[in-house]
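Quick sanity check, HAUS augmin-like complex subunit 4:
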Amino acid sequence: MASSSGAEGAELLQQGHGSLLPPCSLTTEDLAAYPGLANLLMALTKHMDSSGLSTNLAQQLEEAKKELHLRRANWLKWETLHRVLQEALRDSGSGLAAQDKKFLEVLEQQLLVGELRQMLNSGPSAQGTQPSLLGLMPSDLLELLPSNQELEQMRKHLPVELEKHLKRKCLALLSYFCPESDDAGEIPRAALMRTLAECLAAEKQRLQEASAQNQQLVGLLEQQKAAYPQVLLRCLALLKHLAREHRLGTQSELDRLNAQYLEIKCSAMFLKIRLEELTVLLETYVPEKVDVHRMMRDNLQAAICQGEQDLAASRQILSSYETLGPEFEELVKEYARLQAIIENRRWVLTEFNKD
């Protein structure tokens, strides 16, 4: 009995009913171990969807998604219109006619009042939790609205101005997207503008596909980044093995040969330097210059010997003077004083002789 129930459950899974079951991971072994589980799950499919929600809750969720989509689309439409009008106000330049200037003033005033009303309706004061800003109520903003006549004129003039502004934006977008269309005429540009939405949608689709491809390539790049270090580590281990097994065995012989080669090269370099030194000396000191240098050396040695002899004589005289004692110093001082007096009187006699 259990085997027949398991076979029926496996048949249900093979027929494609597994996608209709609540979220669970079932195997044929599970169905064979628990008889009747497949029938229970198939009975639950009448009350649950594939995500595990009840049918009523799933229906309510689907209706809420549709309502949210409609509200988002509605909000996006009015938000786009509001931003386009604000942009039109920013782009309005100087030198406008009085009628256009009045239209822009009424439009700006209407937009400001609408923004203030939205702030008051969507803030905490709308729920009664906090007092409104400056004690204002939405009804207080009615005084800031333009007159009905001005609003009526603005509404009549608004579609034309909005169409002009949107046309300028479409032309600017067309010039950016297709720069070659600037030299075309008005009719070809209008034809291009009709296909601009399709071209932009195709370009958006292309960019999305390119972005998805880029994400895929980024994923592959990350995988390669994770794989490359492992490969490099294996290569490094292989190189270490080769160096340890094959390189180090002959390293000592190679080092000996390199040392011998460097020694011979160094000896050759020293011999070459000595040869260059001898060549320079041979070219610098010719026999005539050697004879002159020899004569100069003999003269200098003779001068040195004479100076040493004079120095020895002076030292001998000085030592003899030092042996005479303090009386000799007094005599020297007296001699110096008398010599100064004699010199002074000689100078006076010389001056008298001049006169």
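Posting the structure with no commentary besides this: Residues 14-18 have pLDDT under 50 and may be disordered.
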